[in-house]
Write a structure and sequence with these properties.
The chain is of the alpha+beta class. The chain is built from 8 helices and 18 strands. 2-OXO-4-methylpentanoic acid binds next to loops.
Length: 364
């Protein structure tokens, strides 16, 4: 490990009463904890020492490269309180590896995976009181590491100064009374990624470019948009912030293969590994959106679901597109396999069932 993090604790942390009020109803991404982690990289020096400080505004030059050329990447993972009071996170090494593959694509410096994991540990140790209790619900502390080009220079070149930070935000389940199927809009006018582009990197620009499809979907009464391959508008890629899966009548657990335009989700990777527990064969291949429409009509496709850190596993209901729709196969709370995989994944993350895959890592 190369980075150490000097700690200066927040002299004015949130009161215990206010924190309890927030943790009772945290929503998603609305409230931040008392601390943040920061480290600076310089072209000639590499990574300098890290620090843990009070959460607060960032000062930067209006000429900072990130504000003009979007040289920025991020990660998302959660800290879970286990029944014995300890705090754990899910496959953080995979997030660290993905941060580095995003960094390579966006001409940002790599951060050693052990430093990445240590930065999470340092923040969660300081803000442990913000990790929601293990109360049978689905609350957790969402961790948001991010890295951006901070050098003040308007010329187009890789930034000579880069900041890495981690912030944290308590998160509730998005669902009250069990997961509810979401309605999806097929985005035909807007793509989120293209061949040779940045679809496989977790960079902010991908999310900005997905918003127009999301807005079009909302105008058509949908919760989220699903994006197709931009070259032919034929194959299913993914949602703006989730990967997609199909359960077929012939026992396959099917997901679009990683073509370079899809984010390699850690949840996706884990669901593929869980398939065998449900007597399903995991299959990664290209999937035509027409196959989805036909499969729902013929009964070949039994269930469709989306997955990701924020979404966990979310049933997909109706599919709508310009001029048509395919009905939901999800019932009120998703099909049996969707609910089964969701429950198994959550029970591992929350420490309620044996972590037979050694996916969990202790943070506090
Ligand atoms: N796809 C996109 C575009 C995402 O932003 C996310 C969320 O991080 C995912 C998929 C799911 O990835 P993960 O399971 O690693 O959270
Ligand atoms: C996550 O699931 O961690 C994400 O990054 C989704 C985010 C766009 C809200």
């Amino acid at each position: 490990m190369s980075l150490s993090f000097a700690a200066t604790l927040n002299p004015h942390p949130t009161s215990a009463e206010r924190r309890a009020e927030i943790l009772a109803n945290p929503g998603f991404g609305q409230f931040m904890t008392d601390h943040m982690v920061t480290a600076t990289w310089r072209k000639d020096e590499g990574w300098g020492e890290g620090e843990l400080t009070a959460y607060g505004p960032i000062t930067m030059s209006p000429a900072a490269a990130v504000l003009h050329y979007a040289q920025e990447i991020f990660e998302g993972l959660k800290a879970y309180r286990h029944p014995d009071g300890t705090v754990w996170t899910f496959r953080p090494d995979k997030n660290g590896e993905r941060l580095n593959s995003s960094a390579r694509r966006m001409a940002l410096p790599e951060l050693p995976v052990e430093d990445f994991v240590e930065s999470l540990r340092i923040l969660v140790e300081a803000d442990e009181a913000w990790v929601p209790a293990a109360d049978g619900g689905e609350k957790s502390l969402y961790l948001r590491p991010f890295m951006y080009a901070s050098a003040a220079f308007l010329g187009l070149r890789p930034s000579t100064e880069v900041k890495y930070s981690v912030i944290a935000s308590p998160a509730a389940s998005i669902f009250v009374g069990g997961p509810k199927p979401i309605t999806l809009w097929v985005s035909q006018h807007y793509a989120r990624a293209g061949a040779g582009g940045t679809g496989a990197a977790k960079c902010g620009g991908n999310y900005a470019s997905a918003l127009a499809g999301q807005i079009e979907g909302a105008a058509n009464g949908c919760d989220q948009a699903v994006f197709l391959d931009s070259a032919t508008q034929t194959y299913v890629d993914e949602l703006g912030g989730m990967n997609v899966f199909f359960v077929t009548k012939d026992g396959h657990l099917l997901t679009p293969e990683l073509t370079g335009t899809i984010l390699p989700g850690i949840t996706r990777m884990s669901v593929l590994e869980l398939a065998k527990e449900f007597d399903l064969t995991p299959v990664e291949r290209r999937i035509e959106v027409q196959e989805w429409k036909d499969g729902v009509a013929s009964g070949e496709i039994l269930e469709v679901f989306a997955c990701g850190t924020a979404a966990i596993v979310t049933p997909i209901g109706e599919l709508r597109w310009e001029g048509g729709s395919a009905p939901s196969t999800a019932g009120e709370h998703g099909g049996e396999v969707t609910r089964g995989i969701r429950a198994r994944l959550l029970s591992i993350q929350q420490g309620r069932s044996e972590d037979t895959y050694s996916w969990m890592q202790r943070l506090a």
